[in-house]
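Minutes, project check-in
Item: structure for the 235-residue chain
Input as provided by the requester:
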Amino acid sequence: MCGVISAQEEKEKEEEKKITARDTLPPAEKYGFRVGVDIGRLIRTVLSEDNDDTNDEYTGFEILGDYRIYKNYYLAAEIGNESLLRNEENISVEGAGSYARIGADYNAYNNWYGMQNSIYVGLRYGFSTFNQTLNSYKIFNNSDYFPVPVRNERIEVDSLTASWVEFILGIKVETFKNLYLGANISLRRLLSEKTPDRFDNLFVPGFGRTNDYSSYNVGYTYSISYLIPFVKKKR
């Protein structure tokens, strides 16, 4: 009887060892390519089309993606197309074109077991090719007797370029299996731009509005993306 009990105890101990060993294995994390779209640009496009009172007419679309290369490090890129018609009091001008941003992200968030959310910082280099079209403008004068003339002179300039760098702070949360919602804010600094001969760029696709007072701009993104896992690796 004692021999039977001892054999049973030994079997139970072996089972406990197996369970303990299995439970203490380091969790595996998914590595792969995550691709999505900027839903903020899509929403802004729809709202611009439906609002007849706005002075700005905007259309835009962006595809974004990242690839996890090592633990908390990701390669990242965005490509897109934008156009903005600015109807202001003294000028009507439109900028339109394509852009790309490439760089890397670092995830500073320590996930719980089974989670792959991220609070990240990133750096990008951006480049845009675009055109500017001047539809009309007013010529100022200091006379109280003559009205300010409006010139409807259409000037279109192609093959313009611009480049910039940007620092990004963002978050991505897995809402369903491999489906992520994200948001980020970026601080951008213009490095170079090619301008028309007779007027300045007022909008650079991918960078945003420009002005004479500063080379900086702030942007934002609201994204939805899907992770295509290739492999699983231990932490």
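Outcome recorded: The longest helix spans residues 2-23.
No further action items on this chain.
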